[in-house]
Amino acid sequence: MSRQHGYDLIERIGNLLRAEARQAGAGHGLQPVQLQALAYFARANRYSDTPAALAEYLGVTKGTASQTLMVLEALGLVSKREDKDDRRVTRVQVTAKGHQLLDKLLPPALWRNASAELSAAAAQRIEDELVRLLRVLQQVNQSRTFGVCNTCEHFLREGGRKFRCGLTAEPLSIEESRLICREHELKTGT
Ligand code: SF4
Questions:
Q1: Ligand 1, CB cutoff 6 Å, lining residues
Q2: Does residue 41 sit in the same domain as residue 95?
Q3: Which of 117, 138, 163 marks a domain boundary?
Q4: Interhelix angle 32-43/3-26, nearest 10 degrees
Q5: Cβ atoms of residues 47 and 184 within 8 Å
Q6: Centre of ligand 1 from the C-alpha of residue 156, in Å
Q7: 83 neighbors 70 (Cβ within 8 angstroms)
Q8: Domain CATH number, residue 76
Q9: From atom 6 of ligand 1, which residue's Cα is the shortest distance away?
Q10: Tens digits of pLDDT across the chain (190 residues)
Q11: How many angstroms separate the alpha carbon of residue 108 from the centre of ligand 1?
Q12: Which atom of ligand 1 is nearest to the CA of 153?
């Protein structure tokens, strides 16, 4: 596959999925970026549930992230609260209504139907290669990985079902180990 062809394919796939997400979100008054923001907060851990982290994740300005949040809050899809230790920091939580909407809209029907056409082995191969491609892109771009906690360099297993963040020294629950994190760093050698 030529480099140009690879780029064309990724762009075509992105366009198809974006169009589908735009259509799905429009029925609920949401633009694609607002749907992406909602999906982000549903997966973000306690170190990443802030407007600033959302801006970094989406690659948008803090102003755009803040406007996006205002729309989500007005629709009752997220709620905001002050951080208990630092009142300047706002924390964002997806409401039950927000989770219900996400379950309905994401992944888009087009993706679900297309995935069902692939064998489990083929779907896994594609996922593995996409993860590799994303990592290379992030390394070249020097952007944060926002990876899943249990794949992080700092993730510590303390036996049984006990986990800890080696960066903050705080304990992590099983649920938290499956969330994405702004401080995530790839394990050396991956
Ligand atoms: S182990 Fe890594 S990903 Fe998990 S909370 Fe700590 S810094 Fe974040």
A1: 45, 47, 149, 152, 154-155, 165, 167, 181, 183-184
A2: yes
A3: 117
A4: 90
A5: no
A6: 9
A7: no
A8: 1.10.10.10
A9: 165
A10: 677 888 999 999 999 999 998 998 999 999 999 999 999 999 999 999 999 999 999 999 999 999 999 999 999 999 999 999 999 999 999 999 999 999 999 999 999 999 999 999 999 999 999 999 999 999 999 999 999 999 999 999 998 889 999 999 999 999 999 999 999 998 876 5
A11: 29
A12: 2
How many structural domains is the chain composed of?
Answer: 2
Determine the structural domain holding residue 12 and report its residue range: 1-117
Cβ-count burial of 7 within 10 angstroms (0-12 exposed, 13-18 middle, 19+ buried)? exposed
The model's pTM is 0.91
The DSSP secondary structure of 14-51, one letter per residue, reads HHHHHHHHHHHHHTTT--HHHHHHHHHHHHB-TTT-SH
Residues 71 and 43 in one domain: yes
112 phi and psi, to 5 degrees?
A: -60, -45
Query: Which ligand 1 atom is the nearest neighbour of the CA of 172?
Result: 5
Whether residue 100 is found in the same domain as residue 176: no
Whole-number Å distance between alpha carbons of 136 and 139: 5
